[in-house]
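We both want to read C-alpha cells more fluently, so let's practise on a single case. Would you supply a protein for us yourself, any chain you care to pick? Would you write everything just below, so we can both look at the same thing?
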Amino acid sequence: EWLEDLKPFKTNQFKPYLSKAPYIIAVFAKLFDIVDGKKQKYYYPIESTGIATGSLISCLHMSGLATLTHTPSPTHFINEILGKPAHYRPMLLLVTGYPDKKTQVPKLHRKPFSELASFI
C-alpha cells in the first residue's frame, strides 16, 4: 500500500537533490542528557522535535526557501558522519534551498478544512 501511495510523487532510490541542495539540515531528537554523571531524562523529545521542525519549515518557507524532508532508513549513519552521540536520534534531513526551475510538484487532493477541525 505504501508503495502505491508514493506513485504520484514518482519517488525512487535516486535522490539527486541531496547533492545539489545548498543546505541540508540534520534534525535530531535529544532523548536524554548526562549531567554530573547521571542520566537526565527528557519528556516528549520526539513530539517536541516534530513541533520545532514544523516551525522551522514554516519560517524557511516564509523566507522564500523551499524545503523537502528526507527520512533515510536506517539513520544511524547520520550520527557517525556528524559525530553525534547515540542519545541524539536522527529524525530527518531537511533539504533546503531555492527549487530547481524544472521542479514539478504533484497536484494532491486536500481534505476540506471542515474535515480536519471542529470547534465547540
